[in-house]
Amino acid sequence: MSSHDGGILTLVATPIGNMGDISTRAVQCLNEADLILCEDTRTSAKLLQAHGIRTRTCPLHDHNEQERIPALLELLNEGRRIAVISDAGTPLMSDPGYRLVRAVIAGGGHVTAVPGANAAVMALTLSGLPPHPFLFSGFLPPRDTARRENLSVLRAAEQAGLCATLIWHEAPHRLADMLASLAAVFGPDRPAAVARELTKRFEEVRRGPVGELAQHYQEHAPRGEITVILGPPPADDTGPQDLDTHLREALKSLSIKDAASLVAGIVNLPRRTVYARALELTRAQD
Fold it and tell me: Tell me, what does this protein do in biology (predicted)?
């Protein structure tokens, strides 16, 4: 179907806390839609009622998105207008909708959006840390081992030259452990910020070295919606040079495998990452 004879799928940003943060165009779009897809219809009902929106709603979440797609594509084919909203903020950003958008695009359908609130970008602008480049990674794995492995890949990317402000969302009960993982992988002195309850009555942005923030939230259990921002590595970060220096030294007397195992422990990176770099260095020498 072409975008001219079919319906339109519109991604509509909704408030992340303060109910006043919805645009006139968003309200108009939701009123004119034939169907609103909600992450949770009960959560969205409050917002829709507040603005007198009576459009039919239907749940779209991670567990039903794939099976709903054929019927939704059929509705768009018939010329219907479908809006997508999440519980808060911009749809698809750590929220459902990506698979549906991909399917509509693949079918030649028309996708557009009504921009608005986004917690990650708001937290970034309030953090006092460099606003760009930035890398937003949604939620980290909840378990410590998987979380550290995930963070180690980013630290390895920094050692290969990545220099960006890093952003995540986190659940209140995991915040202290997550900050401790950041301190362990990136060093306790890395500047960071924790943004909490943005646009709401108890909005708070706490800034400081990530090690100190980990300590603070270990002692003071946080509440509410949370975004964590970690500043880029300092200009004098010796990570990339350290890795290669240690590897070159180890490779003089050890096999690639043994050198990688030894150096991984020294530079606090996954062994497979260090092994890959050791291979590159060996090839370059040959």
Answer: Catalyzes the 2'-O-methylation of the ribose of cytidine 1402 (C1402) in 16S rRNA.
